[in-house]
Amino acid sequence: MAHMVFCVRNKREMEGLDEPPFDSEFGQKIFKNVSKAAWAEWVDRQKMLLNEYRLQPWTPQAQQFLVEQMEEFFFGTGSALPSEYVPPSH
Which of 30, 34, 69, 21 is nearest to 49 (CA)? Predict the structure, then answer.
């Protein structure tokens, strides 16, 4: 049976992640409150942030920035897009 959560981002019961994304209290919070669909949205947002800000994900500063953005994305008002960001046209 799938792990179900009430997704904080989509405001409804949905399938949750298969396991916590991090081995920490924050990872458990995500596991208990974030759906697979919302996590996929975050992965796309994280890629955009890495590219727009030219972050090096192995640095502690970039990791801290991404954790702050993730917290805001799921549990705050949603992380803001960079002011210079132009969405791709399809």
Answer: 69
